[in-house]
Each structure stands twice: as structure tokens, then as C-alpha cells.
Design goal:
456 residues; alpha+beta; Nucleotidyltransferase, domain 5; GIY-YIG endonuclease; five-stranded mixed β-sheet; 17 helices; elongated; DNA-directed DNA polymerase activity; DNA polymerase-3 subunit epsilon; GIY-YIG_UvrC_Cho; DnaQ
């Protein structure tokens, strides 16, 4: 078995927007280095000053060096039939695979990360950066932050790891079923193995324990592992993977509960890697306001972000139908409710069904009493129901409670609980903030699975 121990220097931290300035490949036969290839590469872009200060590689040094496409075939021939080895392998591999693909080569080979391997075979070190680890292991590095020096040190580290691997860890990593090398360099396999195959919410955390991403899943482990697949070489993904050091999770009874918990937790923590949630908002609402003459006026309007609606609708027709019902039952004025326009008096007044608020024949105080009764009726029309589903185990069931058209909260109750009493349910549920996004999810779910909905 041959290993290709690789190190590269680059113009920046992500493959899709940066270039390689130097590359070194040390061919290792499992005992020692048997061949090598090293070259400067013209990245065809400027090398930032801080990169030059770190590596010592300047624009002048690479000006007459070959561009990657000129040496792509040589590099591919050194790599394609060997085990690709690097310290933080996904960084080097992403750059080289990206550049090779631009030159028409598809690099497919197994990988070994000496960061991950060192954590398993040589545990207990305070740092697994190449410089500090080699210093602790008395491995010398000549030309630190140059491809040749770092690759030679990594090859010597590989020799030590191969000699110290008494439990066959390397073979396990290289097995077809192992996804070890796809994991971020700072995330242990043990963290993945403890994740359950059930619905819930997971939290990616950085080295200091700060939450950097929150996600929801039908199967937590499968969803988490999906983050580490793919070929995205952009800066955001590369930095994101590098920053993941640990994972926490919370199991939910259903995927719907995971959706709601995720939405709430993102609003609570606002992790830097979570993009804005897609929001569902009802398009129209029924609003009440007092006009300059003191009359309370009901009207349908487009959804107002910062003004609570008495009732929300997805279509203006749905809103007008409800408003006309209130007008009929409480003898409200169609003109004051914006149903009729461009008339001095509404049609109902002419027919004797309106007391004349539209032409100020009825006082505001008298008219407003009926508006208040209409609003009270509206409140009784808002639905109260529970969605009952499976729990986290066989001894419980999950419960989501909607009370008078607003999401109250969710939690877990006994299989024998009295579901028809909201007061008893509330004591077992965790309250959540209600919004149109959550209500839409719950209502849609209840419509799809009417057997789970229990009117209260």
C-alpha cells in the first residue's frame, strides 16, 4: 500500500476562490519515503501580504513557475492510485481536487487525515496542530509553512502513526463503510456515533462551546453526516467545517416538533452560520382602528408586520366572507367596514338595516358596542385544538396545543392524559412564542393528518 503525503501553500482558505502556490508530494511505502515531487505553482492571482509573510512565497517567486494545468497530469499520476494523506486532509484535498477538475482530471482516492489519526492513536496532546504536535513528538520541521518541509514532517508523523497503530485504526478508517475522513478535522467519530436515528434538533459548537449552527432533522445522525458530504469548495463551508468541535442534540417525538424547536432556538441564539429562516406569513388580516370621529372600524388589509391582526387569512375573499358574516350578525355598517365605497350612506341604511353610523346618525358609542360584540364573537371562532402524535418512547405521546388561534406550546403527556381539558394540558407543555410560520405548519399538518387533531 502506497501513501501520497501532501502539503500545499495557497493564496487563501477556500479552493473555489484561491490558488495553489506550492505543492509537495512525499510517496510513502508504509515504512519510509520512496519518492517525492515538489514544485512552486503560479496561482495566476496576487499573493496577499499576510500569506507572503507566513510562507515566504512572493509574487516574484512564482511568476515564472508553471500554472497548475501545466503540471496537472504529473500531480494526478502521483496521487490517483495512492492513499491521500495530509494534516487536515480535507483542506489540501479540496484544493487539489478542484484544480485537477479544472484541468480535466477526476481525482478519486481514499484519504487519511493525520489530525484525526493522531487524536485516536496518540491521545492526550494539548494541541494537534502540525507544529505543536511535531514539537511534542520530537519531529523536526525544516522550512515550516513551506510545502516541502511540512510534507516531510507529516510523512515522518505518518511513519510514527503506522508503527503505533496496534489496534488497526488506520485499516478501520480506510474500510469502505467508514466515513471517518469525511468528518471535520476537529470532530471525533465518537460524537457522531452517539447521535440517534430519530427526529430532533442538533447544535454544532466551536472550540469554546459557542453554538455556530442549529438544524432540524427527521433522523439526527443521517442529517448531521450529510453536512460533511459534497464538493462545495467555498469559503463559508470550509470555515464552517473547520470550526465544528462538538455536537449537542435534543430528541423530539416528531419531525413537526423538530421544525418548531429549530425555529425557536435559532431566534434565541442566532448562530452565525444559520441563514434567515424562510417565513410563512398570512397575506391578509382583519384589523380594527378608531377613526377621527371615534367610530371603531373593521377592515381587511394586507398583512402588517408589526400590528397584530384580529384574524388572518390567506386570500382576501376568505377575509371578506368572514367580515360580511360579522356585519350581518351584528348589524355593522358596510361603509365603515370598507365593503362599500363611494357612497354617502351604505345600502343597508337605505334599506333600514343600518342605524346610520355611516352618516353619523348613530353615535360612535352606540355603534362601538356592537363592534366589540363582533370582536368577542371572532375570538370564540378562533380554533382551540391539540395535535397528538407519537412521543420519544412508548410510554408517552407528544402534544401541540393551539388555543384560540395561537400556538400555546408543546411537550409530552401520558398516554392516558385527559386531552379535552386545556388547563391540565398546559401544565405538561412548554410555552412557545406563536407566529404565522408555526401556525401554518401546525394547521397544514392537522389538515394532512386529521386523525391526529383533537378539538378542545
Amino acid at each position: 500500500m502506497l501513501y501520497a503525503v501532501v502539503d500545499i501553500e495557497t493564496t487563501g482558505g477556500f479552493a473555489s476562490g484561491n490558488g495553489i502556490t506550492e505543492l509537495s508530494i512525499q510517496v510513502h511505502d508504509g515504512v519510509s519515503i520512496i519518492d517525492s515531487y515538489e514544485t512552486l505553482i503560479n496561482p495566476q492571482q496576487d499573493i496577499p501580504e499576510y500569506i507572503e509573510a507566513l510562507t515566504g512565497i512572493s509574487n516574484a517567486m512564482v511568476r515564472n513557475a508553471p500554472v497548475f494545468s501545466e503540471v496537472a497530469e504529473i500531480i494526478y499520476n502521483y496521487l490517483h492510485d495512492k492513499i491521500f494523506v495530509a494534516h487536515n486532509v480535507n483542506f489540501d484535498f479540496s484544493f487539489i481536487k478542484h484544480q485537477l477538475s479544472l484541468s480535466g482530471f477526476d481525482l478519486q482516492c481514499k484519504k487519511i487525515c493525520t489530525v484525526r489519526l493522531s487524536r485516536k492513536i496518540l491521545p492526550g496532546h494539548s494541541s494537534y496542530s502540525l507544529g505543536k504536535l511535531c514539537n511534542a513528538l520530537n519531529i523536526g520541521i525544516n522550512n515550516r509553512h513551506r510545502a516541502g518541509g511540512d510534507a516531510e514532517a507529516t510523512a515522518e508523523l505518518l511513519t510514527l502513526l503506522l508503527e503505533s497503530d496496534h489496534e488497526g485504526i488506520i485499516s478501520q478508517m480506510l474500510s469502505r463503510n467508514s466515513k471517518e475522513q469525511a468528518l471535520p478535522p476537529n470532530l471525533s467519530r465518537a460524537q457522531i456515533d452517539k447521535l440517534p436515528l430519530c427526529p430532533g434538533v442538533y447544535y454544532f459548537k466551536d472550540q469554546k462551546g459557542k453554538i455556530i449552527y442549529i438544524g432540524k432533522a427527521k433522523s439526527i445522525r443521517k442529517r448531521v453526516c450529510s453536512h460533511f458530504t459534497g464538493t462545495n469548495t467555498g469559503r463559508q463551508r470550509q470555515n464552517f467545517l473547520k470550526d465544528i468541535h462538538s455536537i449537542d442534540f435534543e430528541v423530539c417525538g416528531t419531525e413537526l416538533m423538530a421544525f418548531i424547536l429549530e425555529e425557536s432556538e435559532i431566534k434565541k441564539h442566532w448562530p452565525e452560520n444559520n441563514r434567515a429562516l424562510k417565513r410563512f406569513e398570512q397575506k391578509y388580516g382583519l384589523y380594527v382602528f378608531e377613526d377621527q370621529s371615534g367610530y371603531f372600524r373593521l377592515g381587511i388589509d394586507k398583512h402588517r408586520k408589526h400590528t397584530p391582526a384580529l384574524y388572518s387569512f390567506n386570500t382576501i375573499l376568505e377575509g371578506h366572507n368572514l367580515l360580511k358574516l360579522l356585519i350581518k350578525e351584528h348589524l355593522l355598517c358596510e361603509k365603515l367596514c370598507f365593503i362599500q365605497k363611494n357612497r354617502q350612506a351604505c345600502t343597508a341604511h337605505e334599506e333600514g338595516n343600518c342605524a346610520g353610523a355611516c352618516v353619523h346618525k348613530e353615535s360612535a358609542a352606540s355603534y362601538n358596542v356592537r363592534v366589540k360584540y363582533a370582536i368577542k364573537q371572532l375570538e370564540t371562532m378562533l380554533p382551540t385544538f391539540a395535535v397528538i402524535d407519537k412521543g420519544r418512547n412508548e410510554d408517552e405521546q407528544s402534544c401541540l396545543l393551539v388555543e384560540q388561534g395561537k400556538f400555546y406550546g408543546m411537550g409530552y403527556i401520558s398516554n392516558y392524559a385527559d386531552i379535552h381539558e386545556p388547563g391540565q394540558l398546559k401544565s405538561a407543555l412548554q410555552p412557545f412564542a406563536s407566529n404565522d410560520y408555526i401556525l401554518h405548519m401546525i394547521r397544514t399538518h392537522a389538515e394532512q393528518f386529521p386523525q391526529k387533531k383533537i378539538a378542545i
